[in-house]
UniProtKB/TrEMBL annotation:
Superkingdom of the source species: Bacteria
Entry-linked HAMAP family: TatB (MF_00237)
GO CC aspect terms: TAT protein transport complex
Protein name: Sec-independent protein translocase protein TatB
Membrane topology: Single-pass membrane protein
Length: 168
């Protein structure tokens, strides 16, 4: 980059004052300043665009790496699930073919119990539950107990104007 010191800038200013003249120098300096500002903004925009494109390339690379890792995990999980299913079927098949003490083969006999019933969420009535809250608690915590339109709510909480009546 070109390095301008104070002495070089003073020399350029003196030459510009002589060549351009004192009447036109402020206008020319202003124009040069505007042009330099535009050039700096253009260079900054180009730098930002290059940085965005570099970041986009990095993000694409990270995306492909992440997708590859996800595929590898999926493949390992499916392989482990297949191995588990195979071993489970071997175990259940071997249990099913064991000879029982009564001489029969097949089922596990009378020691098998059905699984417990699944959990079923109790359907509680929320209106009853809400009605059990005391009114003083609702008032203290700002729970609305009456339905009001938006306009009515605004009118209710609008600050009151002082009365314009003067005198007794």
């Amino acid at each position: 980059m070109i390095d301008f010191g104070f002495d070089k800038l003073a020399l350029i200013g003196a030459v510009a004052l002589i060549v351009i003249g004192p009447e036109k120098l402020p206008r020319v300096a202003r124009t040069v300043g505007h042009l330099l500002g535009k050039a700096q903004r253009y260079v900054a925009d180009v730098k930002a665009e290059v940085n965005r494109s570099i970041e986009l390339e990095e993000l694409k690379k990270m995306k492909t790496e992440f997708e590859d890792a996800a595929r590898n995990v999926e493949r390992e999980v499916s392989q482990a699930a297949g191995d588990f299913e195979k071993s489970w079927s071997d175990v259940t098949h071997s249990i099913g073919t064991l000879d029982q003490p009564d001489g029969s083969a097949g089922s596990l006999g009378s020691s098998w119990e059905p699984p417990p019933p699944e959990y079923k969420h109790p359907r509680k009535n929320w209106r009853l539950k809400r009605g059990a809250v005391p009114q003083w608690y609702k008032r203290r915590h700002g729970v609305r107990t009456h339905v009001q339109s938006g306009a009515a709510r605004v009118a209710r909480f609008r600050p009151r104007r002082p009365s314009s009546k003067v005198g007794p």
